[in-house]
Design a protein that fits this description.
Largest sheet: 7 strands, mixed
Radius of gyration: 20 Å
Shape: globular
Helix content: 25-40%
Number of strands: 16
Structural class: alpha/beta
Distance between the termini: 17 Å
Low-confidence stretches: none
Length: 324
């Protein structure tokens, strides 16, 4: 069995380029007892891959998760034809001993790709990153940036379910229109509006919860508008992921101090054992038509790098996936 893999060939200098990746083939050995052979069905591309790459060694398979089907098994826990979510990276076929593999949640008639989105790490990120860190209260005002992305769109909807006023920011008018369809109270195109003025308009009494995917100057402005004892959940900092030199100032520490803000970053794996709780609630909300999703689908394993770069440039609405 031959597997195709995308190799991380060079550390990124600014936005990733085609030359930073190399498509290779490798011959897989026969299975040993306890192992399974998985064939990728759909792969995820996510913003975290950009900063995570700084820790990677060149010559290794690009990091990432996928939904895969077991096509051969010598492990009783994982029967043939079972679908799994695996931390396999950008590869078409993988031999695994079952570590870093999760049985796919039952999706019924819904697409398997939801195992990478609303019923996967993306959904868990929105659920725990918002509810556990921001601990929203009914009637509070919530700001979400990158709000038309996979995580941000879910956070805004969960905030509405919890009875909050929600202000979303996205990069196109089309994305803002979708946010309004999802029930956001306000949706602003940050490329066309003045952030400070929109906050004064939409949150005249201040912001209580801020779910941040962007960082940088955007977050400095929101912090200035937050109420005393506000909560900020830092999920990402995509505005700076492709910077060639680190940004400098302004520094918000005095604002955090005197407003007594809670500012906390997180990696969603801290709640890994509780993920099924989030997926169960998400399924229930979907049945009630309270939680909706979109997918930005790229076809073909050969297009993994293009899908990744497109994500970093904001081309996606909802969860970005690559289907084989």
């Amino acid at each position: 069995m031959k597997a195709k893999t995308w190799i991380f060939a060079h550390h990124f200098d600014g936005f990733p380029k085609d030359s930073d990746f190399e498509l290779k083939e490798e011959e897989l050995p026969a299975l040993k007892d306890g192992e399974i052979l998985c064939e990728a069905v759909v792969l995820s591309v996510d913003p975290y891959m950009r900063p995570y790459s700084r820790r990677m060694e060149t010559g290794t398979v690009m990091v990432g998760t996928q939904v895969a089907r077991i096509i051969e098994s010598k492990n009783d826990k994982f029967p043939v034809d079972q679908h799994v979510v695996g931390w396999f990276g950008w590869r078409t076929h993988t031999i695994s001993n079952g570590d870093q593999v999760q049985i796919m949640p039952h999706t019924g008639t819904l697409p398997l790709s939801l195992g990478l989105g609303i019923l996967g790490g993306t959904g868990a990120t929105a659920y725990f990153g918002f509810l556990e860190i921001c601990k929203p209260k009914e009637g509070e005002t919530v700001v979400v940036n990158a709000a038309a992305g996979a995580v941000g769109s879910l956070v805004g909807q969960i905030a509405k379910i919890k009875g909050c006023r929600v202000i979303g920011y996205a990069g196109t008018d089309e994305k803002c229109k979708w946010l309004k369809e999802l029930g956001f109270d306000y949706a602003f195109n940050y490329k066309k509006t003045d952030l400070k003025k929109t906050l004064e308009e939409a949150a005249p009494k201040g912001v209580d919860c801020y779910f941040d995917n962007v960082g940088g100057d955007f977050s400095i402005t929101v912090l200035d508008h937050m109420n005393e004892f506000g909560r900020m959940s830092i999920c990402g900092a995509i505005s700076g992921y492709n910077d060639k030199t680190p940004a400098t100032g302004p520094y918000p520490f005095e604002t955090i101090l005197f407003k007594q803000l809670k500012v906390e970053g997180f990696i969603v794996l801290r709640w890994l054992e509780q993920w099924p709780k989030a997926f169960k609630e998400h399924m229930e909300w979907m049945k009630q038509d309270k939680l909706k999703y979109r997918e930005h689908i790229t076809k073909g394993f050969e297009n993994m790098p293009a899908a990744f770069v497109g994500l970093l440039k904001g081309e996606n609405v909802g969860k970005a996936v690559v289907k084989l």
